[in-house]
Amino acid sequence: MMQATQTQATDKLTAAAKASAFANGRLSIVVVGGGSAGWLTAALLAADHQADPRVSVTLIESASVPTIGVGEGTWPSMRATLARIGISETEFVLSCDASFKQGSVFRQWRSNTPADCYYHPFTAPVATNELDIADYWFAYQQQVEFAAAVSSQPAVIAAGLAPKRIATPEYAFIQNYGYHLDAGKFIALLTHHAKRLGVQQIIDDVVAIQSHPDGRIAALQTTQHGALPGDLFVDCSGLQSLLIGRHYQTPLLSVQQHLLNDSAIAVQVPYDDEQAPIASATLATAQAQGWVWDIGLPTRRGVGFVHHSGHTDAAQALSTLAQYLQLSEQEFSARYQPRTIRFTPGYRQQFWRHNCVAVGMAAGFIEPLEASALVMVELSAKFISEQLPRSLAQLDIVGARFNQTFRYRWQQIVEFLKLHYVLSTRSDSDYWLAQRAETSIPASLQEKLAMWQNFVPSRYDLPMAEELFPAASYQYILYGMRHFPASERPTKASFRANQAFAEVQQKTQQLMAGLVSNRELLQQIKAHGLQKI
Fold first, then answer.
1. What per-residue confidence (pLDDT) applies to 5?
2. Contact, 461 vs 446, CB < 8 A?
3. How many CA atoms lie within 13 A of 95 on its CB side?
4. d(CA 186, CA 188)
5. Predicted pLDDT at 189
6. Three-class DSSP category at 99
7. How confident is the model at residue 6, as a pLDDT?
8. Measured on CA atoms in the order 192, 194, 198, 199, is the torsion positive or negative?
9. Which of 17, 36, 252, 286 has the fewest CB atoms within 10 Å, measured from its CB?
């Protein structure tokens, strides 16, 4: 998209670019780059400020730069985001070949045995607002897995059932859920919808950047449309990171000392039977040199192998994926043309510089474990929109707050993902030994692990009001991996806790009898649509 470097061409700026930023309360927002990050951010900004004629949103994207399409899995937060920007759930599901995702299933992460499996469901543990149920589960830890004891969702996932019924209104739920989706179709839907909301689309290449004397970006010089001025620039240019990376030279802070993986190969796998069951969660299966994701859409599966290039070469990676799909290497090569994705795991030292803020892969990217890519876009766009600066003084304040908030969030992603590796007992390769080496564990996680020898993960471990991963998520991973407090810790018992455990079992029986399969609900939606709220 950009063939030239920064230029301090203030004497050539257009009159619009020379005008004081935020003049007369007007705010021109320019989003650089399309893809899911660009179009989701543009759509949310446009939807939130549609009634304010002083705010305009323009998105510029290159016709020659393909989108990576990272992020075929979402968190439950996507439901509120889609409702907020005005897309109906029926339209979204049908347009994006979407299915319902109720969490993640981790297979062979504890040990390399077929029976090794645990769940990280989206539904919070039972009675979570009354007591910390984990404290009371330890007495039953040999009888029932933690997730199954505190939530009905693992049973629903295992049975391939949907999280709601056709009569459940749009975006409402019986079991909490997000989505699996076709990234390309999602971008197309967002593009169409954002333009309906008033976002101006410009298809062109950015070739230079014009700056104000104080360092703020004044305008983007384009190939065909000349100088494109703006007050706030959102860098959604992906791994190119045209503004925050190339222009401002903001360093990318590598986290590869904590999380090794820097490569992925991905394929799209059609179903052998068009009525085949659709998985109700992301399947994450550990391999000797990495792990495989497997997500189910109505018409295909998305399957990929995440690994570290230092432990696995391209041929070994292809062989691993072929073996997972139960194909010979020759059959695999004949059927598929895998897409290779290379990345440096890390995040920017700063995300907001002057009047530029990075969102999506321009801000950072860490392996797709737990599917945090799209939720970080949602959170970034929401923050920008709700704290949209209206003066130069506010610009600096909001920027500092954004940097502080998202630095913490990226650090928590690193910590939480690392938890999945350090608790493993696999020793079938140097890869797993390296992933749990003590020197690779972030200090914050080492502190938590020390506390969890005698305490359950709780709000005391997580100080932010809006945590990416709440204490319950840490509990699902910690106890799913069978990492228990010290044996001398006394077990607790209470009438309310036992009542809660019984409620889970009763609800599980009701849901197993009352919910249809993931595929059946999607077919019902296609035929009848979901009830509007």
1. 41
2. no
3. 16
4. 5
5. 98
6. strand
7. 39
8. negative
9. 252
pLDDT of residue 463: 84
Residue with tokens 């104000």: 212
Encoded tokens for 217: 């970006």
Q: How many CB atoms lie within 10 A of CB 502?
A: 11
- Residue for token pair 């907020």: 84
Which strands sit side by side in the sheet containing 252-254, from one edge to the other?
252-254, 346-348, 364-365
The DSSP call for residue 139 is G
Rounded CA gap, 150 and 140, in Å? 11
**Using alpha carbons only, what angle is made at residue 308 by residues 242 and 429, rounded to the nearest 5 degrees?**
170
Q: Report CA-CA distances (Å) from 454 to 449, 458, 484.
A: 9, 12, 9
Determine whether 248 is exposed, middle or buried from the number of CB atoms within 10 Å of its CB (0-12, 13-18, 19+).
Answer: buried
Q: Cα–Cα distances in Å, from 388 out to 16, 116, 366, 395? A: 21, 47, 27, 8
Q: Torsions phi, psi of 300, nearest 5?
A: -165, 175
Residue the block writes with tokens 């497997």: 294
Rounded distance, CA 260 to CA 367, Å? 9
Write the DSSP string, 260-307: ---EEEEEEEE-SSTT----SSEEEEEETTEEEEEEE-SSEEEEEEEE
- Counting every residue written for the chain, the total comes to 533
How does strand 346-348 pair with strand 339-342?
Answer: unpaired
pLDDT in tens, 312-324: 999 999 999 999 9
Q: Is 367 helix (H, G, I), strand (E, B) or coil?
A: coil
Count CB-CB contacts under 10 A for residue 462.
17
Q: Alpha-carbon distance 518 to 79, whole Å?
A: 17
Residue 237: helix, strand or coil by DSSP? coil
- Biggest CA–CA distance in the chain, Å, is 76
* Number of H-type helices and E-type strands within the chain: 17, 21
SS3 31: strand
> Two tokens at 300?
């295909």
Alpha-helical segments (H) within 325-439: 329-335, 373-386, 392-422, 430-435
Residue-averaged pLDDT of the chain? 93
Question: pTM for this one?
Answer: 0.94
